Sequence to fold (682 residues):
Amino acid sequence: MGGIIKPRGGVYIISAASGAGEHERRGPIGTVFDVYDDTGTDRFGQKSWEEAECRMLSLTISAALGKAKLTGSDIGAFLGGDLINQCTVTARAAVGLGAPFAGLFGACSTAAESILLGSILIDGKSGTDGRCVAAASSHNCSAERQFRYPVEYGGQRPPTAQWTVTGAGAFVLSAQPAGCDDILVEAGMFGRAIDAGIKDATDMGSAMAPATVDTLERWFEATSTKPSDYSMILTGDLGAVGSEILINLMYSQGYKLENHSDCGLIIYDHQAEDKHSGGSGCGCSAAVLASHIFPLMRSGLLRDVLFVGTGALMSPLSVAQGEAIPGIAHLVHLKSCAERK
Amino acid sequence: MGGIIKPRGGVYIISAASGAGEHERRGPIGTVFDVYDDTGTDRFGQKSWEEAECRMLSLTISAALGKAKLTGSDIGAFLGGDLINQCTVTARAAVGLGAPFAGLFGACSTAAESILLGSILIDGKSGTDGRCVAAASSHNCSAERQFRYPVEYGGQRPPTAQWTVTGAGAFVLSAQPAGCDDILVEAGMFGRAIDAGIKDATDMGSAMAPATVDTLERWFEATSTKPSDYSMILTGDLGAVGSEILINLMYSQGYKLENHSDCGLIIYDHQAEDKHSGGSGCGCSAAVLASHIFPLMRSGLLRDVLFVGTGALMSPLSVAQGEAIPGIAHLVHLKSCAERK
Fold:
């Protein structure tokens, strides 16, 4: 009711894995990532940045499947997307995985979108059809040259700019629980595309915050809950600028977000590391969720997490044509199964 | 089982509408489209081709909602996509519609992907949550300049090339039937991304045909059916080149596709109209299905249609980097409710 998407049976995230680049490995949670490039070049042995991103994503999916003791043929579907034009990175990874594939585009909200659609797809099904992989990735070097400038150019960045994360996250979803450290996909809600009039591609936090407010307000109203009913409200990725706007806008609507965290602020020490407003990119929330938040949930330190994947639905062309940047925010309510102990 | 996606309750396409450009209106089914630009310029009153495509898509969605006597606020979700980088056309249409939005990327298979995911999303739900809009669009002028050359350039096209359709299709899906002329979404299957080694962006039919074979073989095996059990096997859009490959490959696997049609061959008289191998683009199968196939189903002339949306998962960059073009084919089994009479 009221836009709430709820699997009828339980849908569980039975394993998750992350990939990351060198900048991310130097950050505050740098030790948690499963997949990285030993050479420190973020090339993952490939000759183009797009192939490097694809290799990182494919390795991350393999790592998640490995943790669940599964292979690609045990999976009924793969849902995912990335930032690269026509989602070619994910498509190439889908070729390697061999599972039926549904391509998504949600910009930086893709991890949440894929978990939500994957949960509905496998809900209640058995066998292979009851398992899917949801994944998302981004690479700083493939994204920056497409959306802004090649990194070699060394373009100046304003303080509102976010840093596209080199990272990936993959989640194995199953209609059957695997154990007491699963994460339950309790419910969720798709966001509405909200145009707040922001036209600056280096200020995506301002473009995404109003959409986040819209989704959270609709969620709290539909569920008759309030922010303090959850262990954490985790947005990804509003950065410092967008997070402040979110907290202020929510406060003006009567909601105190005292338990708010943002994946873009978790992944970097953004001021010390010259990352301006913080991290962004499909891989940011995917990697932070998989390898930082989930361990906290599995240990029972976090019980209920509202994960709100946020995206800026723009292209270089739409910005050049003077279009505003619509924001979107997809919400997934995740529960730790550890609390049942 | 075996990759079959089947709504538990019935999911019905209670209305559908199409938009088209001037070339499409001059074609063999030119009189069936709901939305077009009176001026014959395909600009739909806008100043850029991307805005023109968005306007055509938005008008088409409005037309489909209007036929079902609904508005945007009666809809629980909007699923759709287009060919333009970062799917900005569909995102902009989602802002106008105001419904929760899940962006998809399936290249020319997007219509099938959106119908399939939309059916699962609303399956069995009541009220607004039991209704969604699935849609897809493409515009020759926005796509050609992005993927190949601006149309003003007049670039030569090889005989294998397809012509990106200016068109859109929108489908109102409901968990509750509206009448005896509904189309039932019986079941479906997501395609696998198949790399057949084709690297020529002007020969997408060859890239997509092997993926179509893969999906059809898996479908016939999983359902224990054969091509002649259906009124029509409708691919969209393999064109002349891809259709011939499909028929030959299927024949070599023991399947006779005597009831095959292709949306890319239906929309144009491809030889007389200088459209080379036929039409393509997300809007091609969407518009042909909505306004040509559905009336035939509603009248009972076609009872069972296997609609196989086909896509070439490439970008100009992936082609320039020498990557092969993976194909994909999503299948939707559609049934006419008229046969119940």
